[in-house]
Every structure is written in C-alpha cells, then in structure tokens.
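Re: weekly structure request thread

Next one in the queue (496 aa):
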Amino acid sequence: MNEQRTNSPGAAMMTSPAQLTGRSSPRRHLLPCCLLALTLTGCAVGPDFQRPRADLPANWVNASAANAQAVSDQELRSWWTKFNDPQLTSLIERARAANLDLRMAAARVRQARASKGIAFAALGPTVDASGSYTRSRNATTGVKADLYQAGFDAGWELDLFGGARRGVEAAEADLAAAQEGQSGVLVSLAAEVASNYITLRTTQQRLAVARQNLAAQEKTAEITRQLYAAGFSNRLDLSNAEAQRATTAAEMPVLEAAVRQTMHNLAVLLGLPPGALLTELTPPAVVPVAATEVPTGIPSDLLRRRPDIRQAEAALHGATARIGVATADLFPRFTLSGAMNFSDPSLGSLFTWAARGWTFGPSVSWRLFDTGRTLANIELQKAMQEEEGLAYQKTVLVALQEVENSLVAASKEKEHQQALTEAVAANQRATELATRLYRAGETDFLSVLVAQRSLYAAQDALAQSTGTVATDLVALYKALGGGWEEKTAADQAASP
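Done, posted below.
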C-alpha cells in the first residue's frame, strides 16, 4: 500500500496552536478570554425595555365602603370557597386538574421554555464530529490504498453587539407571556365552571317554580271545570284556565333541555364526555350564595393580579427586545472557527501525533447591502412594539371597565332581587285571595288568571335574579383576577 496522509477540510475542535503542540502560553489565552468577556458583557443594540406606565384612578367609582377594603391574594385565588358549596368547589378543582384548554396552555408554556433554550444556545459554540473511511485504487499503478479520517469542527459566533442576547431576552419574555396566559386560563376556567354551575341551579329552580305553578293552575282548571259543570261558570273561564295550564306546561321542556345542556357544558369543562355528570348533577340544589360585598382593594392592584395585564406587559417586553435582534443585523458578525483532524492509512495509527492536522482563525462578515431589508425589518419590529404598547393600554382599560361594570351590576341586581322578593310575596297574597273569592263566587275568573300569571312571572324573575346575583359576583372575582396561581419553585427550576 502507498502511504497517504490527507488533511481533511472538515472537523476539529476549537483549540490554539499552543495547545496542539503541548505547550501553554498565557498570552495565547488572552485573546479568547477577552472575546468571551466582550460577548458576555458587551453592549446590546436596540432599546432597553421600560415597564409601561398606566394611568389608573385612585379608587373605584362604583365601590361601596365595604368594597374598598383590601383583599388578600390568597382569598382571590380560591374565591369559589366563599359560596360555601362543596359541589361547586369539587367541580372547579376537577376542572383545574383535567380541563383541555388548561392542558393546552401548559403545553404552550413548555414550547416557550424550549424556545428559550434554543435562543440561549445561540450564545455558545457549536462542535461537530466527523469520521470517514476510503479505499481507493490507482488506475496507473494498480496500487490499492486505505484512508481513515476523523476530527472535529468548532465554531463560535461572538455576540459583540447583543443580537443573540436580545433574542434570549425576547424568548424569556415569551415564556413569561405563556405562563401568564396559563394563569389567564385558570382565571377564566374557574369563572366559567362557576357560571355554568349557577346557571344549572338557577334553571333547576326555575323548573321547580314552573312545576309548582303548573300544579296550582291544574287545580284551578279543575275547580273551573266543576263550576262550569254546575252552571256557575262559563266556557270562556274554562278555556282560559286550560290555556294558562298548557302555556306553563309548554315552558317546561325548554327548561329541561337547558338543564341537560348546562350539565353537558360542565362535563366538557372537566375534560369528560357530555353525559358524564348527569347522575351527579341531576338532583336539584339551591343557587349558591356568597356575600355581595366583595373587597376589591384599589385599581393599581390589577397590575399585579390580572394575568392578561401581565401577559400584555410580557408581550411588549418581547417586542422591544426583537428590535435589538433586528438592529444587530446592521453590524458585522465575528466568528471563531477551528478544526482538528486525524488522517492515516492505518486505523491503528489514526490518532497518533504524526497523523494530526489543524486549522484555527477568526473571521468577520458584514452585509453591506441588502436592498433595505434590514432597515425595513427594524421598522417592522418598531411598529409591532407600538402595537403591543397600545394593546397593553387597552388591556388595562378593559380590566378597569370589567371591574366597574361588575361592581355596579352586583349592587343593582341585589336591589332588583329585593324588589322581586317583595313582589313575589305580594303576588302570593293576591293569588290566594283571588282564588278564595272565586271559589265563593265573589269575583270572576279573570282576577284569578291575572293573579296566577303575575305570581308565576314574579317567581320566575326572582329565581333568575338570584342566579344573576351569584353570576355577577363570579364576574367581579374574575375581573379582579381571582383564580390564578403563582409559579411554583419547580416551575422556576424547570426554566433553562
């Protein structure tokens, strides 16, 4: 065999000539150390993120003295316990463990965490290993030869202008936004489960009211039928009595369908098939009631409590950092590269000192002309940052609006409920009196008909108002940002 040694252009680990010769020189270590220091501490182009200012009122417009009291974060995180309904608490806890939207949000957090790891990897070097074997035959001499090659290639782009660091900063902001998005799903999920549960109990109560009124109307129709048979009533009274009974009966299938559909909604929120909760939720129960005066604190508390506000702030942070990523393309790129390879016709002597070969050196590249692409990208990122800044302002305003709307709705609905309670009592007395007078022949059937209709309408409206009072409180807790959880220590440790 003819002996051949060929230096491969690929593969080698980054190393200095002094290291390759077995000698170490402090001066030769100076350049890499300086470049490393510049990479880690050098300037980063682009604007630094400044937390946006939010002009917030000092107090809530529609808050009472009781509302204005401070509320603890712990109280808000588990606000549903204030309704003292074990079944509601159980449903929310199960939903927080199995809801599919929440699991998708958790997957988005893991995606953002992996993206951060990818961005962080851009700060470090890359090393590639390679190896090959070649057997050849010389056409002229007919001599056959073997060639073994192995080595390493290394490269490190120095982040002198901070483009990669801005990329890490943007990725960290994206991770924070994803985590806040997950918290936002927790807030919405608890409120949605509670609202559906309250709707279920409200509809069951309305169904019970309808059945009670239907039973009373059937008795009235029977009395009218007896009076008509005895000649003490006319055909019109009998027809009106039967018509009212039939009208009330016609509403019951609609309410029964609404009950089933709400059970289906709750099952899906818990990550279950639609019919999974029918047995559990079919027995009716009262609408859960909580204290109507919810401590709200002051408007500035929303900035740390509402996940959507914190998510909007993180999105603005990421958009600001991406301006720096785009701006870094205006500057040259400095790269350290090196290669070390071994080449020998014998595998046994491949890694001997005589078979070595190496290359090392810095390089620079600078795009001097790209038809304005880099500048256009910078303007694009600036416009996107402006959009995120406006989105942050809108998120804050909407949060304020939701709290104020919930405060006034809860207050006025309570007044509405009290008035309906009085109306039900008055209509109950009127119905009993009209029925007694009608049986005694002292009034006509129209008085009974009007009284029964008014009583049913008032009772149905009271049932709905009771549910609305509870739903308004749920909306207020949600508007305050209740239901989220802080990141655990395990979550923090999982971040790269």
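The CA atoms of residues 323 and 379 lie 8 Å apart. The chain has 13 helices and four strands.
Next request, please.
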